[in-house]
Amino acid sequence: MLRRAGFGGTPDEISSYASLGYEAAVARLVDYEKVADDGAEARVAAMAAELDMTKLASIQAVWLQRMAMTARPLQEKMVLFWHDHFATGNGKVGRPQAMDYQNQFFRANALGSFRELLSGISRDPAMLRWLDGNTNRRSSPNENYARELMELFTMGPGNYTQADVHEAARAFTGWGLDRDYQVTFNPRQHDTGQKTFLGKTGNWDGDAILNLILAQPVPAEFMTRKLFNYFVHDHPSQAAIKQLADTFRQSGYRVRELVRAILLHPEFRSPDAYHGVVKSPVEYLIGGMKTLGINEFLPGIQGSLTRMGMNLFNPPSVAGWDWGTGWIGTNTFVERLNTANSLTTQRGNAAGRGIDPIAIVQQLGAATPDELVDGLLDLLVDGDVDPGLRDSLVDYVVGEYQGAPSNFLRDPQRLDRTVRGTTHLIMATPAYQMA
């Protein structure tokens, strides 16, 4: 649950949630406003005060820190979802402050009203620049936002016509940006004529277009399927989608109630869902840090994330990232292994950026090679590996001790090297790539 509704958990966090029982754990995650997050807020505020927040690297670093530290993991997991769903890239926006503003908007509305999210993103400075809404004028409507609003944000292909795109673009005319990237509205550039959209005719503006879209049955199922894929797996039953979509629609499009229903749904707890989603790069990184007790990000980690395929605030297109097996390619997988190697080999004065092998052995209570391997497998992949792989890892540990495993705890330097190497090997397994 913590891997899906967050970025994994430390052993203490997992123990804390487990002690609540399943439904209470879901409630704690979903009703996160009841959970104090002062530590994370203080840390990110201190970081922001020290960094130049007009730089993209700074807002990336602050967001990563928040993801790693927050006591409200589902809130940040939803911020990541909305960043991908309403994909907007600084490469075109050219204004990191606008990207940060959008990020804060997603955080404030992470599990709020889908209607309000749509209304807010339609007037968001970064989105206006990204999809050319700031050039959408009465005399020459720009259709980019109107098209993606229907195709990617609410309904999907086949549920609207080109005429609907054109009429919706007319309804959104008049919005723009001033020199400071503040949103403006020029009524002289807004088309006040009659528009026919999804079979309804009227003097529609942008908010009316959103209301007409949400009056259709399609958006509830569209969003339910996308959130189900995000939290559970990519092959939901139609019965589950219909049931959850009904819940979403009946709640008045309250995202909180849809996500709560997904986390409580039997398919979420089914064997089919277990280790059934490929970790995104940030999940791979932050989950590993939490599990291994690493408290500080490595230098250059944003470059590593980019090479793994996830440059935060710069998704590859308006369609966002290619999730699932799209995360695993020849180059991106090698970078995962390189990142795992960096995490497991970090030493010296930057100990907070690396693991403490002796502490891990003590935590696991391991006194033999078999106990070390079984403990690390439980810690990193819930023990969910083929017996042959498990035996190969034991052979690796025994080999490190030159066939004399009775010396397991007697040589600190060899133990240090063995724990680091075994951890790296497990982080390279197919099982570890799955949430």
Beginning-to-end CA distance, first to last residue = 9 Å
Tally the helices. 22
Tell me the overall shape.
elongated
What number is the mean pLDDT?
A: 96
Radius of gyration: 24 Å
Number of strands: 4
Order of helices and strands: HHHHHHHHHHHEEEEHHHHHHHHHHH
The percent of residues in helical segments reads 55-70%
Percent of residues in beta strands: under 5%
Largest sheet: 2 strands, antiparallel
What structural class is derived from the secondary structure elements?
mainly alpha
Neighbour order of strands in the largest sheet: 1-2
Unreliable sequence segments: none
Brief summary of the model shown:
56% of the residues lie in helices and 3% in strands. It is mostly helical and 435 residues long.
How would you sum up this structure, described in words?
The chain is mostly helical and 435 residues long. The chain has a domain at 281-433. 56% of the residues lie in helices and 3% in strands. The protein has 22 helices and 4 strands. The protein has helices at 11-20, 22-30, 38-50, 56-69, 73-85, 90-93, 96-108, 114-122, 125-130, 144-154, 162-171, 206-214, 218-231, 238-250, 255-264, 281-292, 301-307, 330-345, 357-364, 369-381, 387-400, 412-427; strands at residues 175-177, 183-185, 195-197, 200-202. The strands form 2 sheets. A two-stranded antiparallel sheet has the order 1-2. A hairpin with a 5-residue loop joins strand 1 and strand 2 (183-185). Helix 2 runs antiparallel to helix 15 (255-264). It is elongated.
